[in-house]
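Subject: design request, 178 residues
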């Protein structure tokens, strides 16, 4: 049913409100609960997945217990993978990356044997379209650029190069570096 997502959101929103959470006025999928002493629990709702973070182990335990009691949910432990992003939670901090996705993209487009570089483009070089050049398959080129755009969420260092490449998605041809 097309009303199901709205019904689910209304149900869980009312339950969170009943349990003392406040909905963030700027992000409707974020719910916050505070206790005295600076204790806080933040819940992020994405469709039927919940991610929570906070600074009090007791609040974690209580939250998991009342959610499992009210809804048919399971605790799958610490987050390791979410929306294509790999998450490493270590003592030094929380790190995110898309290593697996990047390898899959390289393999899919036949670039897995290419030499790695530290800088994705030579500084100062300009990319220009070769009007007389061989026309490329635009759907294939768009897939490469789109896959690269998705990588930029965890790799802002390639954002500039990907944005330059996206300028040539209309009628791609061989490129000339100047």
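Subject: RE: design request

Done. Sequence follows.
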């Amino acid at each position: 049913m097309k009303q199901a997502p709205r019904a689910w959101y209304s149900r869980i929103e009312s339950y969170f409100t009943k349990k003392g959470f406040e909905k963030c006025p700027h992000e409707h999928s974020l719910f916050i609960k505070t206790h005295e002493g600076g204790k806080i629990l933040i819940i992020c709702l994405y469709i039927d997945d919940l991610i929570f973070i906070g600074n009090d182990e007791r609040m974690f335990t209580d939250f998991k217990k009342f959610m499992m009691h009210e809804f048919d949910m399971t605790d799958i432990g610490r987050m390791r993978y979410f929306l294509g992003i790999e998450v490493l939670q270590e003592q030094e901090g929380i790190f995110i990356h898309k290593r697996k996705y990047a390898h899959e993209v390289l393999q899919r487009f036949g670039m897995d044997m290419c030499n790695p570089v530290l800088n994705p483009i030579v500084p100062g070089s300009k990319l220009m379209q070769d009007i007389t050049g061989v026309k490329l398959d635009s759907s294939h080129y768009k897939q490469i650029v789109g896959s690269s755009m998705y990588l930029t969420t965890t790799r802002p260092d390639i954002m500039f190069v990907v944005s330059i490449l996206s300028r040539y998605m209309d009628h791609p041809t061989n490129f000339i570096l100047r």
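The chain has a mean pLDDT of 86.
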